[in-house]
Amino acid sequence: GGLGLIHSNQVSGYNLEGSIVMLSACDTAAGFADRSDLTFTGFVQAFGDAGSTLVQASLWPIYSDAAKRNTEEFLSNIEKGSVIEASFAAQRNQSEITSLPVVYIFP
Question: Of all helices (H) and strands (E), which one includes residue 63?
Fold first, then answer.
């Protein structure tokens, strides 16, 4: 049963050392920080705490086709170079989308 939802307290129990996490849903990087030294909290932070090298997330609503194109672009570029280069290439190649709300977080 259930919808298969995962919560941040569950993520922290995983060993995601060196993994790339792609959160393809609206507002996955949104959260409230009550400390000024934290950039991201909650769900995204849980993946970083579990050892992820990179988390791709959205700060606000995103169109499904834009998220799909960005993910495809990232994955095609990761084979050609580093994670950082792939994230920049994916954002550069989305120029037809004036405000792509995807952020790449390197915890």
Answer: none
Name residues whose C-beta falls within 8 Å of residue 14's C-beta, 6 or more positions apart in sequence.
50
pLDDT score of 98 more than 50: no
Using DSSP bridges, classify how beta strands 54-58 and 20-22 pair: parallel, antiparallel or unpaired. Answer: parallel
Phi/psi of residue 58, nearest 5 degrees? -120, 140
Q: Which structure tokens are listed for 18?
A: 């060196």
CA distance 20 to 18: 7
Q: At what angle do helices 83-92 and 64-78 cross, to 10 degrees?
A: 140
- Looking at residue 42, what DSSP letter applies? H
| pTM of the model as a whole | 0.69
pLDDT in tens, 72-90: 888 888 878 777 777 777 7
At 45-68, the pLDDT tens digits run 888 889 988 888 877 777 777 778
